[in-house]
Amino acid sequence: MRLQSFGAACTVTGSMHLLTLDGGRRILIDCGLFQGSGALEARNHEPYPFDPADLDAVILTHAHLDHVGRLPLLVNRGYRGPVYCTPPTAALAETVLLDSARLQLEGYRQHLRHARRQAREDEVLPPLYDEEDVHRALDLLRPVLEFGQAATVAGLRVTPYRAGHILGSAYLLLEDAGGRLIMSGDLGHRAGGLQLDFTPPPQADAVVLETTYANQRHRAWPETLAEFRDVLCGAVRAGGKILVPSFAIERSQTLLHTLKALMDSSEVPRIPVFLDSPMAARATRAYFQFGDELVPEVRDALRSGEDPFAPSTLHEVLTGDESQRLNRYDGPAIILAGNGMMTGGRIQHHLRHHLWKPGTRVVIVSYQSPLSLGGQLVAGAQTVEVMGEEVAVRAQIQTIGGFSAHADHDDLLAFLETAGCPHVWLVHGEVPVMQAFLPELAARGLKGDIVPDRQDVDLLGSGFSGGRPPGLGLEPGPEGLKVAADE
Ligand SMILES: [Zn+2]
Hints:
By secondary structure, this protein is of the alpha/beta class. The chain has helices at residues 38-42, 65-68, 71-76, 87-117, 131-139, 221-238, 251-264, 278-289, 296-303, 320-325, 347-354, 373-378, 409-417, 431-443; strands spanning 2-5, 17-20, 26-29, 57-59, 83-84, 141-142, 151-153, 156-162, 170-176, 179-183, 206-210, 241-245, 273-276, 314-316, 333-337, 361-364, 383-386, 389-392, 396-399, 423-427, 448-450, 456-458.
């Protein structure tokens, strides 16, 4: 089996891995969008280094945008074959891809308006795809993959296992006469959140492993909950708005469930909770539909007819007008709005209205790219530009790191424990993080390598080994390479 990675190689975004099997069969694992910085996002517009029409199949590990977001483009450029995934991934992919098409169109129109004033409209890149491309891509979905059950894809035996990262997320065991390969997709953090832990993997000859947080240990779940409670209680005493920028899938549901639990047990006062994200509200429907996939506490609540994602004070804000009207709402309230890195979305107008007030709290529960608005707030900026306006930062910015949906250092090593003695190929990580992880693999007697960007590697052959592939030569820039837009 040969692998070429056209995304998530030496970076954390744009997952797209091309597997070439004996006889020339070609399977694409994930087809994600590059997100984060302009340089990375420019790669979305590059031509594919292969003919999409030549692919035999596509398999999606999960529905995060950086794993599915270029699928409509693949279809636009000629792919007509099947796209295999689990049923929850298919349900969430519809929400994610339709939202992506809408955002691209809005972004394009906005850029065009600005560029026209400078007579530079020729420089504005058109949207990658439109809603029609999304529907054509959705028509190709084959949501037939079930955890633990082998399927045949282009003559290859494929068994998906629970990855514990977000609803429906899978890692894949791929088997043919040449050997056994595991593609990790994104793995979840054990013991916390809504998802069951990942299934310990079977033995394999090679593992392509995500390494987003291979250099970190997340705080334990009970400590994270206590921290969240203390931050909320302090914020309620301050009397201002509590703004929680959050991603629509998994993070929003986890936060709503946590808020409900904290309010039901009277650990946090019952102040209004506004979910200002129609996409999050739509995604939550999939959590109802596939409730049996979730941790027992949530699954049982759903079975008994409860809504585990609805604190008693929850209001869903659907229209843009309703969202704007929240600016005139008096008194303390929790506002959950996207996007998670504050680079766009409804959170921006809430920030513009409340960042300058000392009573406001911005509670950050996910990774912030250093150049994003969220990154500037985390770095302690005194003023920031929001929607074209300079705003003083008098609000308190509070970061809670333990809500991550990604495996940490210990989770990744635990994952490898049952996999035998595979050759471990590292993807979906910053280069320095992966380099620091290689000696840990060596200490466990495992051969490890970093998958180079776009180069062809023989996964089950000897590989190049020694950690640094020829021609890698990629060093992180001042802003780093990491974006982790989905975590
Ligand atoms: Zn993910």
